[in-house]
Specification:
With 141 residues, the chain is mainly beta. It has a single domain, classed as Beta Barrel (OB fold (Dihydrolipoamide Acetyltransferase, E2P)). 7% of the residues lie in helices and 47% in strands.
């Protein structure tokens, strides 16, 4: 039986996209996206939870994201979940799960931005090393 790895998200950027290029000149952008869930608990109190997603975008779409998206801007993302492992500088094994975006649609006006939602600093974590490009080349720092 076939399997499916498909993610659809609509949320707000937690930070401006960071654009890098592979040695072959292919762009890759990284940013975080916040999605919010709201509900009423059994006592009738409003509750909210923010989930942070690491987003990776490749190619010309990455360059467009870096040019037109900014912290707080809303966007629609279709992609797949990917988990990677690496060793940090101390030799500890680390792991991250990210969304590799295959389609990014900018929502809202160009002037929309700021705010970002969620807890301040919630998107700040020990960043994983850059992902090797589709051709296996690494992205320089």
């Amino acid at each position: 039986m076939a399997s499916v790895n498909k993610v659809i998200l609509i949320g707000n950027l937690g930070r401006d996209p960071e654009l890098r290029f592979t040695r072959d000149g292919q762009g890759v952008a990284n940013f975080t996206l916040a999605t919010n869930e709201r509900w009423r608990d059994k006592d009738g109190q409003n509750q909210e939870r923010t989930e942070w997603h690491r987003i990776v975008v490749w190619g010309k779409q990455a360059e467009n994201c870096a040019q037109y998206l900014q912290k707080g801007r809303s966007c629609y993302i279709e992609g797949r979940i990917q988990t990677r492992e690496w060793e940090d500088k101390e030799g500890n094994k680390r792991q991250t799960t990210e969304i590799v975006a295959q389609n990014v649609t900018f929502l809202g006006g160009r002037g929309e931005g700021g705010g970002g939602g969620g807890r301040p600093g919630a998107e700040k974590q020990d960043a994983p090393p850059p992902e090797p490009g589709p051709d296996g080349s690494e992205i320089p720092f």
